[in-house]
Design brief:
Layout (H helix, E strand, L loop, with lengths): L3 E13 L2 E13 L5 H4 L9 E3 L5 E3 L8 E5 L5 H5 L1 H11 L4 E5 L4 H8 L7 E3 L3 H7 L6 E5 L5 E5 L8 H21 L1
Parallel strand pairs: 5-6, 6-7
Antiparallel strand pairs: 1-2, 3-4, 5-8, 8-9
Length: 187
């Protein structure tokens, strides 16, 4: 039986007890594809990494332990990635020091520097991460991954849905806040 690549976009999220239910649309875009590995990591440990930080030095998965992490995968020429940076900055402001806030890109320091001359992104940024991103089998950007304080992957989605208007955008963010609140209190 052929396997198809499908992209699922969440339109609405509901939390019922210990379940997170996504409502949305699925579009088949390619045949002969297996599911991205990152979705198979839900409720499993984040794979080990040592990746270069934009501001110098390295960060490892061990450095994240003890505090939940919001991990955003993006790249400098991805319009949806750039568009959601303001929302991610708002999330950081809302939750303060309760989380690690990590952005990860395969881009190098000069490309990121060029973007940051025009955009503010308050997350700590890891660069040159192509090998790790390949290990996670990331196929679409942006990718949003929520990890508990023990480095267990708890939530994966295609970034923050780009809303049609301000009302839908606020609903989308409120739904994401509920998930973040639940994950930060449960794990």
């Amino acid at each position: 039986m052929p396997i198809a690549k499908a992209i699922f976009r969440t339109n609405r999220i509901e939390i019922h007890g210990d379940s997170i239910i996504h409502f949305g649309n699925t579009t088949v875009v390619e045949r002969g594809f297996k599911n991205p590995k990152i979705y198979n990591l839900i409720n499993k440990p984040l794979p080990h990494f040592v990746i270069e930080k934009y501001k110098g030095g390295n960060l490892t998965d061990e450095d994240l332990k003890g505090k939940p992490t919001i991990l955003n995968l993006w790249f400098t020429s991805c319009s949806p990635c750039i568009n959601e940076m303001a929302d991610l900055n708002d999330i950081k402001e809302k939750y303060g020091d309760k989380f690690n806030y990590i952005g990860m890109t395969f881009d190098d320091r000069p490309a990121v520097y060029d973007l940051f001359k025009r955009r503010i992104f308050k997350f700590d940024v890891l660069i040159n991460a192509q090998k790790y991103i390949d290990k996670l089998d990331i196929e679409g950007y942006p990718e949003l991954i929520l990890i508990d304080k023990n480095n267990i992957v708890r939530y994966v989605d295609f970034g923050i849905m780009q809303a049609i208007d301000d009302t839908h955008k606020q609903q989308t963010l409120e739904e994401l806040y509920k998930i973040i609140d639940k994950l930060s209190s449960d794990f």
